Every structure is written in structure tokens, then in C-alpha cells.
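Supplementary Methods S3. Input chains for the assembly prediction are listed below.
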Amino acid sequence: MHPEIIVIGAGTVGAAIAYGLARRQCRVLVLDGDDRDHRAARANFGLVWLQGKGQNMPAYQQLSRRSVDMWSDFAAELTDLAKLDLHYEQNGGLAFCLGEDAFEKRRSDLQRLHNQLGGAEADWRMLDRAELTRLLPKVRLGPDVAGASFGQRDGHANPLQLLAALHAGILRLGGDLRRNVAVRQIVPGEAGFTVAFGNETVCAPRVLIAAGLGSQALAQQVGLEIPLRPQRGQILVTERVEPFLPLPTSGLRQTREGTVMIGATHEETGFDSSATAVAAADLSRRTLRIVPGLAEAKLVRQWAGLRIMTPDGCPVYAQSQTHPGAFAALCHSGVTLAALHSTVLADAILAGQLPDTLDIFHQGRFDVPKAA
Amino acid sequence: MFRKLHEPVETVTIYVEGRPVAAEPGESVAAVLLRQAVVWSRPTPVKGSKRAPYCMIGVCFDCLAQVDGIGSVQTCMTPVEEGMKVERQQRQRCLPS
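Predicted C-alpha cells for the full assembly:
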């Protein structure tokens, strides 16, 4: 196979774009890393989320909105092709507020973001405790819960099913996916990019780097300087209990099978991906302030994953200026943005040019000279 | 299915789904469940397939049952006590509301 494009990274980001490329009859080769590589896609919480995103960059809210609006069609098509249920639901989502101050702060944060975006009708509202109680009849809320923000476009999905479906979709559409092939080197040349892994090399006119935290070193080889850092997030998982939480919330969701997922921490601990007792205690304490009844549920799992963070937390989409044909796509919201990645971004990479609407996500925004 | 190899010198009484059952002090609730005519302890939460005590060392979690009102107790790790009430657990547990 002579691929038209090599996608480095088969996590949710790389796989979604590769799936989109394969759907457009592009011959795609996807190279997945080693088992021991950091794999954010396998530690994900599973929100398909909009509310509150982009407080420092409204364009990120608009980007997420585009993707969230496409998610339903994306999920239907992928499910049909891969014969895997993504457990996707989009009935709205909640962010609980503990205390009146937190409730007012949430309101003003969302209002400020809304004002920055201008115009459009709000797709969120604040629910006071009484409204929240009516919405969640099977939840006995803790006394500190003042209310919640409700985002009508929010939803959730099973992130592992999503990843498996994307991989299956790529293969079904004739793409090639190789595992355990961590890429060592990308050599730009006359005929395109030569990508080296193990004892092999493969050449293609285009290459996309979507290798999560492993991307920085690879991107440098094609003239892209992308600052990245890991941010640890830990998640707790309970045994399966009877459905009681009909909507996902920012730190608590119940899966279709009854499992309750509790998340997540935001820790600047470098590449240490251990799960800690301190995080388990903090997450449990906060969750029991919201739903005291969960004290009865048994914890069955805890894990940690490393988010792929850019300096401003927003995605990076870029094509190398020195080596056209080399692209990079990096973000920590691979699930929410999967629908957009598989369409808008796949189209742009095929066209050989990122659209103006994505200009703001170029990593050039971090090249602010350190002022003397 | 199983039976004890010796006659216990002393016994306590526990209640399995309301029925009094003799047990030997120091043995686990799971060991008692394995001697019952209906040997399974719980259906799995999603597919509902039946599970009985298996590993007996706290690893497999197949022996979960409700003990004295508390759900999902690992019965193989729980020694019998006089008057203990053991119920088979149905599918997904309900949280107290």
C-alpha cells in the first residue's frame, strides 16, 4: 500500500481524522504507538461537552459547538459502519454548584462567555435547587447544592466504544491501522515524508501528527514548535447501581450499564500517571456533598490519565510552513471534537490547506517574544 | 452441591433469604451459600447471568450478596455471625434516596 497520508497516533484525535479521511476515499495508514505510551483516549471520562468551554478563547466555544451539533449524525453513521453502540445521549448536561457563591460565579462566568460570543440565544440556563430537584427525582441532593448550570447541547458517550468504533471504521473503509509501531523519526524529502518505526520506513506525500504528548518531538522534525504539557486527571468508578442520574454532569455521570464515573482532578504532576489516595479522598468528598447516597456504592476502579495540554488549553491545528503537507492536530477534547475532526479537519487536510476559521488555533499564537 | 467434611462442634444460625441455616463459627458466608440447594448468589448487573462464589479469596467478586442490609458485600471475606441476614442481590443495586 502506498498511503496518501500517514496519521501518527490512533487515539481519539488521530483515529477520528483518519476515519474521516478514509470515508473520503483517501488511502490512509494509521500508526499506533506502544502499549506503554500515555493513552489519554483510554482514560477519558466520556463527556461530549459544550457549556463553559472557551472562557479564554470564545472561538473554542464556537468550534466545540460545531462539533456537538454534528455529533448525532457522526455517531449514527459510525455506529452503522462499525456495528458498535457508542452509548451516545444528548439530553443536556449539568454542572453542580456547591454554595450560593459558586452558583453566582457560574452564572457570571457563563454570562461573560455568552456576551463575548454575542447575539445568539443562550443554550444554557441556571437551575435553582427546586428546579434541579424536579429534574433529578431519584437524587437526594446534599444540603450544600445551591443549583446547577444546565447546558442543553451537552451529552455523553462511551469513550472506549468510540475509540473501538473509529478503529473498526477505518479498517472497514479500507484504511490500514498498525499497532505497536511507535514512530521514531519523520524525514521530509522531495517525494514527501519518510516515517521511520521499528526497522521499517514508509513514505507518503502527507503526514498528520496526532500523537498526543508524544507529538512535540515529532512536530519539531517538520518545523512545528508546539508547546505541550501533561496534566493528570484521575477518575473513580463505582459498581453498577440502578439508574438514578438521567443526565451527565461535569464531574459525575452514570453510564448506560449503571456504573457511576466520578472525576476528575487537574494536577500538574508531569509525566507521573499514578493514581493516588489523596485524589480518591478529594473526589469522594466532593461527590458526597452533591449526592450523599453514593456513600453506599462500592468503588471498583480508579485510574489516572494525562491530558494533552497546550499553554491555553485550547486545540492546536497547524500545517508546517517550512514543510507543507505536514499537519498537527492536538487537543484534550478528542471526544467532543471527534465529529468535527472527522469532517471539517479531514476535508481541510485533504484540500492541503486549513480553513481561515481554524487560523486562531495555529500554534503561532504561543510565539509571543519574551519582552525585554 | 457442597457439604461439610466434619460435624461442627458448635454452630451459629444465619438466615439465607429468611430461612434459618446452621453455620460453623469462623467459616465465611460464601461457604454457607455453597451448601444451599440454590447455589447462586447474584445475577450480573447487565446481562443477568447467575454467579456463585468462586475464588473464595476476595479476588473475583462473584460472591457478592446483601448482608444485614448492606449490598455488594464480598461474602467470601465475611465470617458468619449469629443472626446474620443474607439475601441474594438483584441485578443493579438501588442507592438509598
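The domain at 5-80+159-228+312-366 of chain A is CATH 3.50.50.60 (FAD/NAD(P)-binding domain). The interface with chain B takes residues 138-140, 239-244, 257-258, 291, 293-294, 296-298, 300 of chain A (CB under 8 Å).
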